[in-house]
Amino acid sequence: MNLWFSEFHAPDVKHSIRVNRHLYSEKSEFQQIDIFETPEFGRVLTLDGNVMLTERDEFIYDEMITHVPMSVHPHVKDVLVIGAGDGGVVKELARYESVERIDLVEMDPQVIEACRTYLPENASRLDDDRVHITYDNALRFIRRCSNCYDLIIVDSNDPYGPSEGLFTKEFYGNCYKSLKEDGIMVNIIKEELPIEESLKRKLELICEFSKTTPTIINGNIRKIDKTNLTYIEPNRIIIKDKTFLIFNFSNEIFIENLSNKIKLSELEDYLKTI
């Protein structure tokens, strides 16, 4: 069976992923929830036809949105997570023994139940004793809070549909009121960062010698809202069904994740082994 999932970006643009199995499909009170099993990205969660996470690269987002503020704030004990029903952010927060309470506010209980079943690695720490799950609209929840949290992490969807309220002045004002005096709020602003042209030509030349063609997905600059902190997501290069990560102007390339790297000059020889 030749099955594909397509995410539409514009009338003439779509991003497609080959699908092995359609594992889950339900229409909740709020949105359409689907989970696919794919050969390239592992399991993929989509909401209303938009990709929320993939098993292959979710760590890039969850680790950055969690560990950056945790390294800045010296004593985080009480944390509020808004959205993130897949459990990825909670999983990273639970690594810190100093964290005493994690309040997770998720509007849609079916997202959490689907992820418990089909994305168990992401959802593995949702049953931690420190985690308290509330099924509610985050805008309504945050109105009741004052001086409660050392850290608020907002992992929200796009600014339309059921998440519209999380992009209003009222929401940000209530988040400010809910923070302790030295509290931090984290939200992610994304800006595409195209691959540097000379690097792109090098990769294409190496692949030409290896008789293959690379698929290049541009990296991103992500800014942590309300702070001066930014981080860079690397460019993703898919060659022979394997994902490589590389930063602009770098002479090193990472294989699958940031813990396994080789020199760019060694890539041609490496491709001969796969």
Structural description of this entry:
- This protein has 274 residues and is α+β, with helices and mostly antiparallel strands.
- It folds into three domains: 3-54, Spermidine synthase, tetramerisation domain (Spermidine Synthase, Chain: A, domain 2); 58-189, 3-Layer(aba) Sandwich (Rossmann fold), CATH 3.40.50; 196-271, no CATH class.
- The protein is built from seven helices and 19 strands.
- It has helices spanning 58-72, 88-93, 109-118, 138-143, 169-178, 197-209, 267-271; strands at 3-10, 13-19, 21-27, 32-38, 42-47, 50-54, 78-83, 101-106, 131-135, 149-155, 179-186, 188-193, 215-217, 219-224, 230-233, 235-239, 242-246, 252-255, 261-263.
- Strands 9-8-7-10-11 form a five-stranded parallel beta sheet.
- A hairpin with a 2-residue loop joins strand 1 (3-10) and strand 2 (13-19).
- It is globular and about 60 Å long.
- The model has no long low-confidence stretch (mean pLDDT 88).
